[in-house]
Amino acid sequence: MKPPTIIKIDGSQGEGGGQILRTAISLSAVTGTPVEITGIRAKRENPGLRPSHLAAVKVVADLFGAKVENLQVGADWVRFSPAKGKFAGGPCKVDIGTAGSISLTLMAAIPAVSLSGNSLEIEITGGTDVRASPTIDYLRYVVSEAYRSVGIKFSLDVLKRGYYPKGGGIVKATIEPCGEPAPAEFVNGRAVAPRITSVCSQLPKHVAERQISSALLSLEKSGVKCTNYTASFETALSPGTSVLVYSVSDFGGPFVGGDSIGEVGKRAEQVGQEAAARYLESTLAEAAVDPFLADMLVLPLCLAKGVSRYRTSKVTEHLRTNLQVASQIVAGCRYNIAQPPGKNESVITIEGAY
């Protein structure tokens, strides 16, 4: 039997980050198509595979019995060949070994597992709220609801927070099978009252409270009222904090969130203001999907049988690149980005073809 053709993906195209690798690996696992990613993170300060990227690839490879070539820190290429019809399943534990993002590892594993019609319980140790990554609360409060609307169901239990530099956060994920994702129509940007969740660890109580206060003030200045907010104080190996402002609805959106994390020398007020500003960018534009979620929706919708549309406030390079990668791997997948005249928004159309 003739071996399947390996699809070659340029890892330096577009935004040139680790998302190209994660999307390619996930789609490879679901479709059974082998891929070779070259020029991995070539334009980044520390090019090649980092520990968090390696962890994501290894998790998916182990789950799907895939053969992976050149999987090592610093590698500028990887070849991933899934074993057709093989899924290890069962509960498993993964330790990233650093404060690497648990969220990004999960965003490689969740769609791969669910869209291949499998279920899984997985516990991952690493960073829950780290730079250049969505916070774990963004995943469990925003992404989970949007994914549920297209048929992918998962739940997250945060057992321990993990911040830079020690990491040590622990998250347990339960993923349910999705036989076929449903096309989405997320164009309803109607107003839904926001919620705020603020978390801090090994820091004074007032840090989380000041984050909430500054976020509330920013919202009020833009005419947005919020009466639902919580502050929590959780265990972690390193001090850290995060805040999320979000609105979600079961009726076609919105699915909008804005998060921010604390760092040394960064005032709590700034953390709250940043989260509110990211939330308001989408809300004031009456967008149904925020720019970060717009990127994450590409993977399931490129596999949905039918046409999906969603409205976002900004088209990022991450989104453009993810659309291009998905169309390379999923034969027949087509997409379009349209910006209505005079509107501060864009409508993404994806025609799935799996």
From TrEMBL:
Domain RNA 3'-terminal phosphate cyclase stretches: 14-330
Query: Can you give the residue ranges of the RNA 3'-terminal phosphate cyclase insert domain?
Result: 189-281
Could you tell me what reaction this enzyme catalyses? a 3'-end 3'-phospho-ribonucleotide-RNA + ATP = a 3'-end 2',3'-cyclophospho-ribonucleotide-RNA + AMP + diphosphate
> Any idea which residues are catalytic in this one?
318
Q: Which GO terms describe its biological process?
A: RNA processing
Quote the EC number: 6.5.1.4
Q: Where in the cell is it found?
A: Cytoplasm
Task: Give the GO molecular function terms.
Answer: ATP binding; RNA-3'-phosphate cyclase activity
Keywords from the named record? ATP-binding, Cytoplasm, Ligase, Nucleotide-binding
Enzyme type, top EC level:
ligase
- What cellular component terms from Gene Ontology apply here? cytoplasm
Which superkingdom, per the lineage?
Archaea
Checking Gene3D superfamilies in the record gives: RNA 3'-terminal phosphate cyclase domain (3.65.10.20), RNA 3'-terminal phosphate cyclase, insert domain (3.30.360.20)
Query: Could you tell me which InterPro entries the record lists for this protein?
Result: RNA3'-term_phos_cycl_insert, RNA3'_phos_cyclase_dom, RNA3'_phos_cyclase_dom_sf, RNA3'_term_phos_cyc, RNA3'_term_phos_cyc_type_1, RNA3'_term_phos_cycl-like_CS, RNA3'P_cycl/enolpyr_Trfase_a/b, RPTC_insert
Family per record: Belongs to the RNA 3'-terminal cyclase family. Type 1 subfamily.
Chain's role:
Catalyzes the conversion of 3'-phosphate to a 2',3'-cyclic phosphodiester at the end of RNA. The mechanism of action of the enzyme occurs in 3 steps: (A) adenylation of the enzyme by ATP; (B) transfer of adenylate to an RNA-N3'P to produce RNA-N3'PP5'A; (C) and attack of the adjacent 2'-hydroxyl on the 3'-phosphorus in the diester linkage to produce the cyclic end product. The biological role of this enzyme is unknown but it is likely to function in some aspects of cellular RNA processing.
**What HAMAP family does the annotation carry?**
RTC
Name assigned to this protein: RNA 3'-terminal phosphate cyclase
Q: What organism is the protein native to?
A: Candidatus Nitrososphaera evergladensis SR1
